[in-house]
Amino acid sequence: MLILVVPLAARSALQVCRQPVNVQPQLLALQRQLEAPSTSPSAPPSVLSRLLSPGRRLLALGTGRLVRLKNRDAVAYPAHVALAEALAHLGCSPYAIAVQWLKAGAHATTPQQRATVQAGLLRQAARAGGAQELTAYLRQFLDPNYDPRGNCTLRRLEGTVTPTDSCG
Known about the structure:
The chain is mainly alpha-helical. Helices cover 72% and strands 0% of the residues.
């Protein structure tokens, strides 16, 4: 069994190092799948379906709570910082690391947290060939109309925040 697990874990770790980690879409898809009826409307539920139904509802409820907890700044900020630092320690791609710093920036609520995020992004920009290149890559992960703190994080990296700006 260990012979199978070690290569799978190593392959998963390499994939995480190369690509950004984004679990929220998978959690939301799982929640929708669990909340959906397990049988078609015309077919009566099977005995197995009836037995599994309470477990599906509990799992859907737990998944929903996990998504809400994950979106709290007090939980999300340190989680993304820790993941960024872990990926950096493993020598992962500056782009994968920068995505975690960007996500931390979207949950940063204090000047000290914003400064920590800025420093992390600048380290990755140096590895990625500059702030402009990294910013261009990171833009794909933000909705300009939905994520003001994330957008401010990128504007700080670009150096386009002014003293009268709402970014603070």
